[in-house]
Structure formats: structure tokens, C-alpha cells
Amino acid sequence: MKESLHALSGAYVVDALDQEEREAFERHLPRCLDCQAEVASLREATALMADDAAMTPPDSLRTSVLAGISTIRPLPPEIAHPRTEESAPSNVVPMRRRRFRVASLVAAAAVAASVAVGVAWHPWDDQNTSSVSAADQVLAAADAQKVSLDFKDGSSASVYRSKSKGKAVILTDGMAAPPSGKVYELWFQDSKGTMVPAGLMPKSPDAKVLLRGNASGATAVGITVEPDGGSQAPTTAPIALFDLDKGTT
Amino acid sequence: MTRTSSDASDPPDRVTGISAGPGADQAPDLAELLKLSGRGDEAAFARLYDATAARAFGLAVRVVRDPSQAEEVAQEAFLEIWRTASRFDQSKGSAVSWILTLVHRKAVDRVRSAEASTRRDTTYHQGNHKIEHDSTAEAAQASMEARRVRQAMSSLTEVQREALELAYFKGYTHTEVASMLDLPVGTAKTRIRDGLIRLRDTMGVGQ
């Protein structure tokens, strides 16, 4: 298993893995110093290939980027726990590595049933921006259950729920856009069948969304089509219902 | 800013010392610019943008093809770079590879999702925009490097080079690459890895 995962390093750095392989490799990476070193060094090689592709971007790109940053607050640095193996010689590229470090710490903490994790990440506080790592933590959770649905139009979606974190994440692949003036709303269904609002889906076909609210008691996750802005209770029948009792870990 | 260490002298003029000067021949220190960006320095980020935008945009165009979509991809990527600049760690890899990794991932995600939702319009915008090859200082500088890279690429076996280009520049998965090149399933990933290792060793990077 390890052997075959290791062989994915090259395809990983050129983003040539399908989603399942990518996830498997990213679970493997934080535990394998060899792969971390290889990924980092191969990334330098791919960056060289891009030299040959250089092309003057339109001025509008510069304008919109510089206008955009003035409205975005840069994330603070992640502060590593002083007692972690921070000084260990690992070489994976930083952006990913940091995320893994947090995820693996969280997993370790969960196993040890410890509450104090000395890492300053920013959990669940900002749905659109810094929740990336929060969602990834749910995906990486040891107790994450997965329920997937395939739809007739070829799109698919998976819900991951971690009871220990009390959170759920939905990943969509190729979702059609909602009708104009409408939005996809997410719901937690409890054991009495009550639907509790859990946030809105962004209007992109492929999304990774951390559901709002506590997922530990939910029996299902639903998606309905609602008027823009969403509703407090579903106004239409769910277009998808993910039965969490059928989840696999 | 509360305390300074020996390598961060907290100067009142934040760009002093990293300015490339009017000639701009000297490549700016991208890692330093990223560090300043992480602290919210918009001027530093503008310089980072100017130093990397042609490569980022060009890479996005190679992958998604449609220039207007490539522009969106590059924009998203740069905003993400700004937001996460503080997470960049110079000891783990170069700034440019960190930046281009992010751009590439976004570009590939874009083509895959476009394919998943509709398999018909991959070229639907093409021809609406005229793209000219870069003529700026960055390109001039890059082109020397690019020539070396092209030489290094030509040292790969044909199948290594094709597999690598289909994956990196066209955004295909290794399974798709295997099928396109009539390779046994599962061998394209090996060709891609072998090719990258050779490229890395020939160019002497990443050590």
C-alpha cells in the first residue's frame, strides 16, 4: 500500500490524481518524510516548466487583484505548538504541510481524548475563507463517516460527518447551478425529522463546504432549492438526502 | 510589530533593501515579498504580482485555454496567495513553486469541474481574445531559463515528456494520460514521476 502511494508523488505534484487518489495521498503524506521531500523537490521542477509558458496578462488582472486584496485580511501565521516536532527535517511544500500538521495534531488529540491542542488555527469562524482547514479537519477526522450520492446528470456529492468534531462537510462534483433567483440550502435533519438550516451552497459546481451548526446529533443532511438568501425551514422537498446512518468510515 | 529579529530589521521604509531598482534586472526576493504580504503590505504584494503574473497567467492559459477563464483562475489564485502568504515557509521550498502550485491546482480544478458539468464547451471562448507572448523583462529573464528547461525536457524519453506535458499543461489525470498514450493503466504515473525526477536532476533544483 505504502509502496503504491509513494509512486503517486509525481502525479500528485502535477495535479494528475483523481480526487480519491489525491485524498489518499494527502492522508499518507504527513506520515511519510520521503514523500514530503520528494514532493517538495519535484514541485521545484514543475515550477521550471511554467517558465516556458509565460504570457503577459491583461491589465485588468492586475487591477482586479490589487483591488481585491484591499478587501481581504491576510491570515495570521499558524503558530506551531512549542512541543511538537517542529524542528524535524521535513520538506513538504508549506501550504499543504501546514494543513496536514494541524490535521494530524487534531487526529492525535482526538485519539488521546485530549482537549488542549496548542495550535492556533481558526475553527469554523468564517464560512468562505478560513474554513478551508476546518473542513479539511473534518475530512481527516478518524471518525469521519462518508455518505455519497450520484445524480442522474453525472454530478455527485459526498457528506462527511465527524461526531467527535460535531461537524459535517459536503463535497460536490459537477453540481448544476441552481435556477436563477434560487439557491441550494443545506439542512441537518434530526431524529424527529425536523430540518435545521445548515448554510447555503456557493454557486460553483465543485465545492467544499463546512455545514453550519452541530452535526453530531443529525440523522441526515438534506439539500433543498430555496429563494435567494435561503429559508428558515425548507419550502421544497429535498433534492438530495444523505442518510448518515448509512455512512461508512 | 512588536519585536524584531536579526533578519527582520523593521525598517520604516518597508521596501528598502528588496527594491530591484529601475533596471529591474535583478530578480526581487519573492520570499521576502511574500513575507511582507503576509503582514498586509499591499505594495510588496504588487511587486510580487509584477514579478510572477506572467508565469502564473501563462500557466493558467496553458491549462484552461480560454484566456478569460484563465484570468479568473489567476485572480482567484493571487487572492488566495495574498490571504495565505503568512503560511509560506521559505525553508520548505521556493516562493515561486509555492505560488505556481496554487495557480496550477486552481486551473486544474477549473477544467475538471467544467468537464464534469458540461463536456461541450472546452473551447467555447477561444478566439475571442488575442494573446501575445510576453515581451516584458520578466519574459526576457524567464526565456533564458526557459531555454535551459526546454533542453532539459528534451533529455526525457518521448513518453516521459508527453505524459508530463499532458498532465501538467493540459490538466489530464494520469489515467487519462495512460489511455491517450496507449500505456498500460497505472504506468503513466510512473512516467510522469520519472520525467520530473530527471528534469529536477538535470536542472539541479529542489536539493
What would you say this structure looks like, in words?
The complex is a heterodimer of chains A (249) and B (207). Chain A is α+β, with helices and mostly antiparallel strands. Chain A has two domains: 99 residues, no CATH class; 106 residues. Chain A is 31% helix and 20% strand. Chain A contains seven helices and eight strands; from the N terminus they run H-H-H-H-H-H-H-E-E-E-E-E-E-E-E. A four-stranded antiparallel β-sheet of chain A has the order 1-2-3-6, covered by helices on one side. In chain A, strands 5-4-7-8 form a four-stranded antiparallel β-sheet, with no helix packed on it. The two termini of chain A are 19 Å apart. Chain B is mostly helical and 207 residues long. Chain B has two domains: 91 residues, Rna Polymerase Sigma Factor, Chain: A (Orthogonal Bundle), CATH 1.10.1740.10; 72 residues, Winged helix-like DNA-binding domain superfamily/Winged helix DNA-binding domain (Arc Repressor Mutant, subunit A). Helix content of chain B is 60%, strand content 0%. Chain B is built from eight helices and no strands. In chain B, helix 2 runs antiparallel to helix 3, helix 5 crosses helix 8 and helix 6 crosses helix 8. The longest helix of chain B has 23 residues. The two termini of chain B are 34 Å apart. The N terminus of chain B is likely disordered. The interface between A and B is large, with 64 and 91 residues.
